[in-house]
Amino acid sequence: MRLLLLRVVMASLLGTALAHEGHDDEPMSTVTTTPVTTATPAPSSVPSGGSEPVVRNIGYLVFNGYEVLDVYGPLSPLNMLANTTPNLTMSIISASLDPVSSSSIDAATNSSNFGQTIVPTHTLASPPEDLDVLFVPGGSGTRANATELQPYFDFIAAQYPNLKYLISVCTGATMLARAGVLDGRQATSNKFSWEFGTSTGPNVNWVPHARWVVDGNIWTTSGVSAGIDGTFAWLQHVWGEEKTKRIANILEYEREMNSTADPFADVWKATWPITPSSTTTSSMPMGTSVGSEHSHSRRMEMDTDSKPNQEYWLPLVQRN
What we know:
- By secondary structure, the protein is an alpha/beta fold.
- It has a domain at 57-263: Rossmann fold (3-Layer(aba) Sandwich), CATH 3.40.50.
- The chain is built from 11 helices and 11 strands.
- The chain has helices at 2-25, 68-84, 146-159, 172-179, 194-199, 226-239, 241-250, 263-267, 286-289, 297-300, 310-317, and strands at 57-61, 89-94, 100-101, 117-118, 122-123, 133-136, 165-168, 186-187, 205-206, 212-215, 218-221.
- The strands form 3 sheets. Strands 5-2-1-6-7-11-10 form a 7-stranded mixed β-sheet, sandwiched between helices.
- Helix 2 (68-84) links the parallel strand 1 and strand 2.
- Helix 2 (68-84) runs parallel beside helix 6 and helix 6 runs antiparallel to helix 7.
- The longest helix has 24 residues, at 2-25.
- The radius of gyration is 23 Å and the shape is globular.
């Protein structure tokens, strides 16, 4: 009887020691606040008791006048991810199932027949069930009539409470702002269209110098190509560094790892709050500003004060 009691006591002590040892190895859950992130924690990307990401169903919102790279830039690493990750789904969502064109919505500047179309799989009225992530691109279409865009704003507002992540590229942030989901949050947008972008969200804490911004489960990226870097950062957050690095290497893409690296904020004099010396693209005629999500040096030369010099560009091509 004494021997049995001794064994029970020893087993209890051993279990307590092992449990304590396990807790010593567990990392402390912390929230880091940086100039481009808030203290709002993002949802866990790994379900309890497992190692697989919780993200399965990804949706892309599209509209006429979408910016091509805003869509296909992030889609390239996502397609590569799907090659090695089971049970991922991609849905293209629009107002109808009609093909959606990237052509400028402004007929005055659309003299070339050069747009590309994408075919939706779902409509705003009949979206896919259980969306985990929604991507929202920018483009000239974000400047369409508010009445025409209202169904998209309503869709974003309705979907957001059930999403694990909401991600915008370029002036796609204006869609989120007008849907009301960015109020009180930090966000960024395209710097050439900075005045237009920030005007759509007076209650948003806009961050001028940012390649991308994370606030809770909302990720916003700067103009056009920044969507690729923001997507890779998000992939690393959800699927880990090893898989993300492999995808980047397969695509032969050199990532910008610093979310605050944004020379274009200086090129276009983006500030917050807006100052008189800031870029004034929102006051330009539609024919001048459409397609403005492209950072071409030809457009920069329209204003000699904003023409980039060498120091802005070398860091982008000479990263170690």
